Q: What sequence folds into this?
């Protein structure tokens, strides 16, 4: 009960000097709103990136040929076979953690429908590619096992290819000329967007077998992608694939295995770095705010020396005086913290709203933990930096304080 | 014996120089007495009152308040003693400008730890004792000097102290208000409270039972009528 009354009194004292109190609070307001709004921006960016990475499939390992430098080439001269279809088949057959696997053959070629033509990137893959990449088929169907077995000349295309080549014509069942072969369009993929500069809607998928037989004429792969059954098996699968590949390639490490986990981890590391930098900046501004509070409280104590003397004459102990001034500085930071929360939430939400409009897939996030953290940090700053002025007030000699003019 | 000073000295040190404000002062004051302290400016009157009021401790000598040696008391005990046993009245009133008369008067009860309703009730009673029942919600700057000093008197008596210490209570007032304030204080004394007041006014000093004259920190005269 006493605390509440002292607190109300403290607020009234602050109200008596509005401009000064407001300026003193500014440091805390800026600090707290910076913590909240910046963490909201960082978190929004993080969620978007992670979501996009996961949209491109989860638990993936991709195996690619390694670019070898001159020294390596001399050392392994003639021994590197490159990545072959057989590699993918071996891994699929011998690694128990493999849930799905698809070889990938990429090649740039000319596409034509009717009188329209353009060049495009064609991918030769298997039916498992759909699950690996999380593709949804909008219309028609995806590639099937039978398509691959029978070397069928069928193609599944992305929305951008459709709009470029077919315009308003329904592409299903139409002949699409890829290189100098004619393929039948059997499906259209649902729109997916792009990540890291790759446009996933500008896609033409054909059976890998057909691609090797009719388009490239050999069994070299650009890569193969493995979907591992469980996240915690990623490393085991990685090691096992490495071992098998080394054996099959006569000890020549002409391939590289990349984990999607790595991508996530890198993203998280970047986010963490951002957090530390922003957190540090916010902490610094709160520190400056705290010094402002200390400065003003010291002035206040001097100004109110006679009042302190009087209160002591009327029976206030040192503790009571200490408490009174400590509550006053805490009230400043408490109010500043609350206003800072309002500003921070408004800024974070406002930025999220703008970002949502500018960047697809962005969501505005306000972290409750940032709100709580900012608030308590502000309170702690108020108490810590109020301690010395309050101590000074408490130590004043009552007789001398009463004589102070 | 209510108050007993034995060879009390007080020395202020200011760097190299030290000022002896009280020099081996000894005297006693009984419960219910009415004492005026007179003396030239700078003779140590306020210093003496500070010591009697437990606002400062003697540099040497003993001060017994109701038989209790004040130098043995802790800060919290000194605060409690000032709160319960002593009511202060100052020349410059020392009211809190932001607060109403009622809140100003209730302040000693706040430090005594009483609940809000009790505090405000007792403060109102004290204010009507000094004839300010119709001014309880006024702030100090809405009151005349005489009225402000009456608020201060109400504040001094609200916790029913044994001793009232007044340092030139009429010093900032015209003679008419001064007379009224003096009458209030003497009435309180008649009801049993011990009154010790500093004054420069000879006439006022004549109206008390006892006058202590202080010069250069020493009691040079102690007259009873
Ligand atoms: N805090 C202090 N530091 C140093 N010297 C002080 C202090 N307080 C009082 N003095 C000195 O002690 C002496 C007595 O001062 P005191 O205030 O007790 O006098 P006084 O009799 O009340 O005077 P007045 O009638 O002018 O109020 C003075 O010489 C004064 O300068
Ligand atoms: Mg004086």
A:
């Amino acid at each position: 009960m006493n605390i509440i009354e002292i607190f109300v009194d403290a607020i009234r004292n602050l109200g008596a000097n509005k401009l000064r109190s407001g300026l003193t609070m500014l440091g805390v307001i800026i600090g707290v709103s910076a913590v909240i709004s910046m963490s909201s921006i960082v978190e929004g960016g993080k969620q978007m990136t992670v979501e996009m990475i996961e949209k491109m499939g989860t638990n993936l390992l991709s195996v690619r040929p390694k670019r070898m430098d001159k020294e390596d080439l001399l050392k392994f001269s003639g021994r590197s076979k490159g990545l072959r279809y057989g590699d993918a088949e071996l891994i699929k057959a011998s690694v128990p953690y493999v849930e799905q696997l698809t070889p990938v053959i990429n090649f740039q070629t000319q596409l034509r429908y009717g009188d329209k033509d353009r060049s495009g990137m064609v991918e030769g893959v298997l039916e498992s590619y759909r699950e690996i990449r999380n593709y949804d088929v909008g219309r028609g169907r995806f590639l099937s096992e039978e398509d691959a077995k029978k070397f069928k000349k069928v193609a599944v295309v992305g929305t951008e290819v459709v709009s470029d080549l077919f315009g308003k014509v329904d592409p299903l069942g139409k002949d699409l000329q890829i290189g100098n072969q004619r393929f039948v369009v059997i499906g259209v993929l649902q729109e997916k967007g792009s990540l890291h500069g790759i446009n996933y809607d500008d896609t033409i998928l054909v059976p890998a077998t057909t691609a090797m037989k009719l388009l490239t004429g050999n069994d070299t792969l650009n890569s193969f992608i493995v979907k591992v059954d469980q996240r915690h098996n990623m490393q085991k699968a990685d090691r096992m694939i490495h071992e098998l590949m080394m054996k099959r390639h006569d000890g020549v490490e002409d391939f590289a295995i990349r984990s999607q986990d790595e991508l996530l981890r890198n993203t998280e590391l970047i986010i963490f770095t951002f957090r530390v930098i922003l957190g540090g900046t916010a902490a610094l501004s709160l520190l400056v705010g705290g010094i402002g509070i200390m400065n003003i409280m010291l002035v206040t104590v001097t100004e109110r020396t006679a009042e302190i003397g009087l209160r002591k004459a009327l029976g206030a102990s040192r503790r009571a005086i200490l408490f009174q001034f400590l509550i006053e500085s805490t009230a400043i930071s408490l109010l500043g913290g609350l206003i800072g929360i309002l500003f921070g939430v408004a800024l974070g939400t406002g930025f999220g709203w703008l970002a949502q409009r500018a960047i697809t897939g962005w969501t505005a996030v306000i972290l409750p933990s940032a709100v709580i953290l900012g608030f308590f940090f502000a309170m702690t700053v108020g108490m810590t930096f109020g301690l010395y002025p309050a101590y000074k007030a408490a130590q004043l000699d009552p007789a001398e304080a009463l004589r102070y003019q | 014996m209510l108050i007993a000073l034995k060879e009390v000295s007080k020395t202020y040190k200011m760097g190299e120089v030290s000022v002896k404000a009280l020099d081996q002062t000894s005297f006693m004051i009984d419960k219910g007495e009415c004492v005026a302290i007179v003396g030239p400016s700078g003779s140590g009157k306020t210093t003496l009152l500070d010591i009697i009021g437990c606002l400062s401790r003697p540099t040497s000598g003993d001060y017994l308040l109701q038989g209790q040696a004040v130098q043995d008391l802790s800060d919290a005990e000194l605060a409690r003693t000032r709160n319960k046993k002593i009511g202060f009245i100052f020349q410059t009133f020392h009211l809190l400008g932001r607060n109403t008369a009622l809140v100003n008067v209730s302040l000693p009860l706040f430090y005594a730890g009483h609940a809000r309703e009790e505090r405000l009730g007792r403060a109102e009673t004290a204010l009507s004792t000094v004839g300010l029942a119709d001014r309880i919600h006024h702030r100090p700057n809405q009151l005349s000097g005489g009225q402000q000093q009456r608020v201060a008197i109400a504040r001094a008596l609200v916790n029913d102290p044994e001793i009232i210490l007044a340092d030139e209570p009429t010093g900032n007032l015209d003679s008419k208000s001064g007379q009224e304030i003096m009458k209030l204080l003497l009435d309180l004394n008649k009801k049993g409270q011990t009154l010790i007041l500093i004054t420069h006014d000879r006439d006022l000093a004549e109206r008390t039972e006892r006058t202590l004259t202080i010069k250069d920190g020493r009691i040079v005269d102690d007259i009873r009528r």
About this structure: The longest helix of chain B spans residues 175-190. The longest strand of chain B covers residues 17-29.
